[in-house]
Amino acid sequence: MLGHHYTRTFLETAVASMNAGCNLELSYGMRNNVFMHIPQALATGNITLEMLRERVRPLFYTRMRLGEFAPPAMNPYSALDLNVVQSAEHRNLSLEAAVKSFVLLKNVRGTLPLRAQDLPGKRFAVVGPFADNPQVLFGDYAPVPEPRYIYTPRKGLETLPVNISFAAGCREPRCQWYSREEVVAAAGAADVVVVCLGTGVSVETEAKDRSDLALPGHQLELLQDAVR
């Protein structure tokens, strides 16, 4: 109603939403919301009491399963803390999820995977604004773990038996300021170059959409310099 003008009134919006199966609203406040008009929709016969019950029922079942109506001492979720969330079991599961969710778009001449027996003595360059900045690795609404559990690409690669050189090139993802010299110097002396690029929440997030999919600022230039 307010943004897309699909409906014209709060009452019309309440009816359309419930008929579409919606049962939860992120409202604009108590004075400016849709759900307070549901009783009016019910009174005018635009929706039925049975429909209203069908919409409400899963919400309260979910709240019951979360233990919201149980005494805190009986709610297992109330005892959870970072020791549980960041346990070794969960960190191993996160690692497994990361490994299984990688998408390799291209593998020219079988560059990957790098073989362990070939690594000792190799020179790696890790470049780009995402190479060693923990602050930019997490998406919108993502839980951020304690720093000791955050591995940037640089920190992760430093666990291998290789010589690592690092050059951010840009201070942050917008990459308005770019140092070509430090990227070229690092990449030019390396056997393997890992370029870490992206956007991050400083560039795109909820209510902050982008008009194109291009890399921000000088990031494409950074990539091209590393390739050269």
From TrEMBL:
InterPro entries noted in UniProt: BXL, GH, Glyco_hydro_3_C, Glyco_hydro_3_C_sf, Glyco_hydro_3_N_sf
Phylogenetic placement of the source organism: Eukaryota, Metazoa, Chordata, Craniata, Vertebrata
Entry keyword set: Glycosidase, Hydrolase
Pfam family, one: Glyco_hydro_3_C
Domain Glycoside hydrolase family 3 C-terminal: 103-226
SUPFAM superfamilies from the UniProt entry: (Trans)glycosidases (SSF51445), Beta-D-glucan exohydrolase, C-terminal domain (SSF52279)
Single GO biological process annotation from the record: xylan catabolic process
Name of the protein in question: Beta-xylosidase/alpha-L-arabinofuranosidase 2
GO molecular function: alpha-L-arabinofuranosidase activity; xylan 1,4-beta-xylosidase activity
Keyword Hydrolase tagged: yes
